[in-house]
Specification:
With 298 residues, the protein is an alpha/beta fold. Helix content is 47%, strand content 11%.
Length: 298
C-alpha cells in the first residue's frame, strides 16, 4: 500500500465538496483523509515531509489547488472552498486523470496568467520523473509553487478595495528602496494616487497611478489623463494595473515627454513576490552536498 498521489485525490475532493455548500481547506483535507484513506497503515498516515507537514494532507491540499486552477472548485470567501458547476459535471463522469486537467483550457489559461506558454511546457516536461534529475525535480517543484502563489496573489489584488490597492503599490515602492510616500486625497485627486520620493531626502518625486482592473485594459485615455495630472515639479510617473495595457496606451507612454513606467499585473506580482509583499516564507529547505575539502589530507 502507498499514499495517493495528489492527482489521485481529485475525485475524493470533489465528492466531499459536493456534500457541503462550502468548507474550510483544512477541514476538507481531514474529511478526504478520514473518508477515503483511513484504511492505510498508520505509519503511512503519519508520514511527514522534510518540513514537518503531514504528507497525505499536503497532497490532498495540492489536489484541491490544482482543481482550483481548472475551475473545478472555487474560493467563495477567504479560507473556504466550494465545488463549481464545472466540478459537479466532471464528478458525474466519475474520473479526472491528471492529463485531462493539464490539457483543460481553464487550467492552461490559469498557468499562462503568470507564465509564458514556453515556460509552462518546459515545466511539464521536467516533471516527467524518468527523465529528470533530483535538481530538476526540485526546481520544477519550486516553480510550480511560485506560479500558484503568484496566480493567487493576482486574484487577491483584483478583489481588494481599490483604495487599499493604491496603498499596496506605495508600500511596494517603499520596499523597493524609494523614499517615503504621500497618499493623495481619495476625492478629486486628478488621476494621481500617490507621490513617492525617488530618494531618501525627497529631492526627486515620482507620481503614481494604480488601476485595479479585472479584465479591462488600460487605454490611451488613462495614460493621457495621468500625464495631464502631473504637475511641473516632476517628470516621472509609474502607472500600475492588475490587468494589461493596450497598444495605444503603451505607445502614448513611450512618446510622452514625461518618463512613464508601466507595470502590468504579471510584473506587479513578480515584484511583490520578490520583495515579500503580500506573501510570506512558508518553509526553508537545506540541500547539502559532499564537502570534498574536508577529506583532503594536508
Amino acid at each position: 500500500m502507498e499514499l495517493p498521489k495528489y492527482h489521485e485525490t481529485f475525485i475524493p475532493v470533489l465528492e466531499i465538496l459536493n456534500t457541503v455548500e462550502s468548507i474550510k481547506s483544512r477541514e476538507l483535507a481531514s474529511k478526504v483523509r478520514d473518508n477515503y484513506y483511513s484504511v492505510l497503515p498508520q505509519e503511512l498516515m503519519n508520514q511527514k515531509t522534510s518540513s514537518g507537514a503531514n504528507v497525505l494532507l499536503d497532497r490532498i491540499l495540492w489536489g484541491k489547488s490544482y482543481l482550483k486552477m481548472g475551475k473545478y472548485v472555487s474560493y467563495p470567501k477567504r479560507g473556504l472552498v466550494q465545488i463549481t458547476e464545472k466540478g459537479k459535471k466532471r464528478l458525474a463522469i466519475g474520473n479526472l486523470p491528471l492529463h485531462d486537467l493539464q490539457n483543460d483550457p481553464d487550467f492552461i489559461d490559469h498557468r499562462e496568467s503568470v507564465e509564458s506558454k514556453k515556460e509552462y511546457e518546459i515545466e511539464l516536461d521536467i516533471v516527467r520523473v524518468e527523465n529528470a534529475s533530483p535538481q530538476d525535480l526540485i526546481d520544477s517543484g519550486f516553480s510550480t509553487i511560485e506560479t500558484e502563489v503568484k496566480s493567487e496573489l493576482l486574484e487577491k489584488l483584483k478583489e481588494i478595495d481599490p483604495y487599499y490597492f493604491e496603498k499596496v503599490i506605495l508600500i511596494l515602492l517603499k520596499k523597493m528602496g524609494y523614499g517615503d510616500f504621500i497618499e493623495t486625497s481619495k476625492s478629486g485627486d486628478g488621476g494621481i494616487d500617490g507621490i513617492i520620493n525617488e530618494d531618501k531626502l525627497g529631492l526627486e518625486k515620482i507620481y503614481t497611478q494604480a488601476k485595479r482592473y479585472n479584465e479591462n485594459k488600460v487605454r490611451e485615455k488613462d495614460i493621457r489623463n495621468f500625464i495631464g495630472a502631473m504637475s511641473g515639479d516632476t517628470s516621472k510617473g509609474v502607472f500600475i494595473t492588475t490587468s494589461t495595457f493596450d497598444d495605444s496606451a503603451i505607445k502614448k507612454a513611450k512618446e510622452a515627454h514625461h518618463r512613464i513606467i508601466l507595470i502590468d499585473g504579471l510584473k506587479l506580482v513578480d515584484l511583490m513576490h520578490q520583495y515579500n509583499e503580500g506573501v510570506q516564507v512558508k518553509t526553508v529547505y537545506e540541500v547539502k552536498e559532499l564537502d570534498n575539502d574536508f577529506f583532503e589530507e594536508d
